[in-house]
Amino acid sequence: MNQELRNAFPSFENGLLENLEENAEIRTFETGEILMKTGQYFKSILLIVDGLIKVYREDEEGQEYFMYYLQPGQACALSMISVSTRGKSDVMGKVISPTTVIAVPLQYMDQWMNDYKSWYHFVLETYRKRFEELLAVLDHTAFRRMDEKLLYYLQGEQQVRKTSILTINNTEIAQELNSSREVISRLLRKLAERGLIKIIRNQVIEIIDLHI
Predict the structure, then answer these.
(1) What are the pLDDT digits (tens) for 87-125?
(2) Counted domains in the chain
(3) Do 45 and 123 belong to one domain?
(4) For a 10 Å CB count at each end of the chain, is N or C smaller?
(5) Both 72 and 171 in a single domain?
(6) Pair (155, 121) in one structural domain
(7) What pLDDT sits at residue 211?
(8) Model confidence band, residue 210 (pLDDT cutoffs 50, 70, 90)
C-alpha cells in the first residue's frame, strides 16, 4: 500500500506516509455502494487512493443533486468539516468505480496539522478546491440554461472518467441536473444533430467534440 499511497499523495512526507500506514484503515468499495450518507456522523476522514466517487446533496424527499467528484489524491472537504465539528454529514457519496480509501481516525487530523507541513497544506488545498468547485457548479446550475448545464455536465464526465464513451442513462442525467428525462433526451438529440455527440444506445453516449 505504501507505493499506492505515494502515487496518490506524492506531496506527503515520509513520516506522514508511515503514520498513515500505521494508524489509518484501508477500506474498499464496489461500484454503486454508498461511501457516506447524509445525516451520518463521521469518525474518520476518507482519503481517496483509487477509484471515483460522486458527491450529492439530498433534499428532504431524497432527491439527489450532483455537486462534485472525488478522485485519487483527494479528500472530501465537507467530511473534514463534519469530523472537526463533530457534526452530521450534509452530503452523500456514491461509488462510481471500484474505490480504495484510507480512513484517518478523527484524533489525528489536528495533530498532523501541527506535525506535518504536507498535511497542513493538503487540508487547506482541499478546502480551497472544493470551494472553487462548488462555485463552478453554482455558476453553471443557477445562472445557465439547461443546454449549457448539460454541456458542462458531459464535459465533467468525460474528464473524470478519462473516456469519450459514457455509459449513463437519461434518467440519471436528469436527476443530477434537477431536470426531467424528456428535457434531457431532447437536448441530447440536439447535440447529436450538431455532431457534438453520438447516441449509440439509450445508455451509451460517445463524445465527439464538446469544445465549443
Answers:
(1) 677 788 999 999 999 998 888 888 898 999 999 999 999
(2) 2
(3) yes
(4) C
(5) no
(6) no
(7) 60
(8) low
Last residue of a domain, one of 107, 141, 175: 141
- Predicted confidence (pLDDT) at residue 30 exceeds the cutoff of 80: yes
Mean pLDDT of the region 145-149: 85
163 shares its domain with 131:
no
- Identify whether 212 is part of a domain: no
142-173 burial code (b ≥16 CB/10 A, e <16): eeeebeebbbbbbebbbebbeeeebebebeeb
Owning domain of residue 103: 2-141
pLDDT class of 84 with cuts at 50, 70, 90: low
